[in-house]
Amino acid sequence: TCRFLLPLQNNYNCFSISRNLNRIFTTAVQSQTIMTELCQDLSVFKPPSSVRGMTDLDRLAFEQTVMVPAIQIPTKNIHTVMKSLKKVILQRPGLKRIVENWGDGNTDCKNGDQRLLLLDPSTITSSESFGNKEAESLKAYGVPQEIQLYELKLTYEHFKSEEILRAVLPEGQDVTSGYSRVGHIAHMNLREHQLPYRNLIGQVIMDKTPGITCVVNKTNTIDSTYRNFQMEVLAGESNMVAKVRENGILYEFDFSRVYWNPRLSTEHERIVSLLHRGDTVVDVFAGVGPFAIPAARRGCNVLANDLNPESFHWLQHNAKLNKVDKKITAFNMDGREFIQGPVRERLPALLKASHKIHIVMNLPALALEFLDAFKGLLASETEDSVPSDDISLPQVHCYGFSKEKDAQRDVVERAEANLKTSLQGFCKVHLVRNVAPNKEMMCVSFTLPRSVLYTEHKQERDSSEEPRPKKQKCEDSTN
After folding, report:
1. How many C-beta atoms lie closer than 10 Å to residue 211's C-beta?
2. d(CA 15, CA 22)
3. What percent of the chain has pLDDT above 70?
């Protein structure tokens, strides 16, 4: 019960005021109740439950109307006040936070003197929800701390990709919108429970990511021969020729026929930072040139090889594209044949030069096995062609995967097994990245031992021994 000390002329005026006050009070209570419910259940910004299980994207099915808090602000002060309230303003993709016309006959909004600013219901639930600085700013501009509810229409455009996929896919199962971006292509590795929704997932990713015009999914593991993998187009065009800029260098290639991993840009940059002008770089598994091109740009002479004819083609293309084709000699050979052929022929002369030699072997699934190609490589050289010290001997940077608990020890031991010598105290191991749970990509760097290069090694097995197992295929397309 409220008592008002007002000069009332008659009972009608008393009744009229009481009725209006009761209506205002009831509306305020209802608004506060709704705001409290919004705070407790933030599903106000979740897509409708009816989209669950959708396999063909229906954008109209995501439309719904929700109630959000808002505050009325003079038009002349709207942008200044917005800066003060930036932490509590409603943030949704593609959503206008300032409403010019609202209500049914509001004079202030009709003549343009007032605007409605939409607020975040997870932060603002009442007029007391504003912080001290926010409240002071509102007071300074004469803005009452009065919250009202606004009927907001949400559409497909206002939801984030993860929100859409979480609403569509089976409840309780993992939802991921993660992908690798390669130019205009989004490359996904979908799990089995996501496959029935793959076309919808592809369309959502393309809709929500500017510049993506093609979404593909890996359908098989990488083939260790050419390091490419089978894929299917989930959404968009079928143009697989990507243009990628990495560390300031432009690359072009057919993503469906060569290997490219955007997660290795930091590693490419790390190795290139070790190089100096005049050095020689031997890239045994060069791909389309992520080591070779920047090395040549740095002033190095590069011998670059790849078994995949497509990679060889795009390696030459990228060398010309970046105007370093005169610095790169490209080969299309098996890695072991490349080491024992062109590299063997050039190595004696390179060892006499004053610049360093770096050998990069980035085929993590198999590269450690190729180290045996260096055993006795220069055993036939005369004594006067052998360097007097180890400073000029090649520096090897060899990559490998490990699932062992001590990954560093594992890759070193495997390198030693293939070189038939100890590397203890003569090598460094760098963690490149975590590929998967309990699987690391490592880089072991060492000076190629003199005993390996110049000592003749006998055959390690005879006909009675079991043949070496076939080379395995890579296990992960993101490697």
Report:
1. 9
2. 10
3. 81
Rg (CA), the chain: 33
Specify the CATH architecture of the domain 261-381+390-454. 3-Layer(aba) Sandwich (3.40)
| Residues of each domain in the chain carrying CATH 3.30.70 | 64-103+110-154
| Range name among 122-126, 283-287, 327-331 with the lowest pLDDT average | 122-126
pLDDT (0 to 100) of residue 425 = 84
pLDDT of 16 reads 44
pLDDT band at 284; cut points 50, 70, 90: very high
Q: How confident is the model at residue 5 (pLDDT cuts 50, 70, 90)?
A: very low
CB 359 within 8 A of CB 397: yes
pLDDT at 321 over 80: yes
Assign domain 64-103+110-154 to its CATH architecture.
2-Layer Sandwich (3.30)
- Please give the model's pTM, rounded to 2 decimal places: 0.77
- Does residue 121 have a pLDDT over 80? yes
Look up the CATH number of domain 161-239. Answer: 3.30.300.110
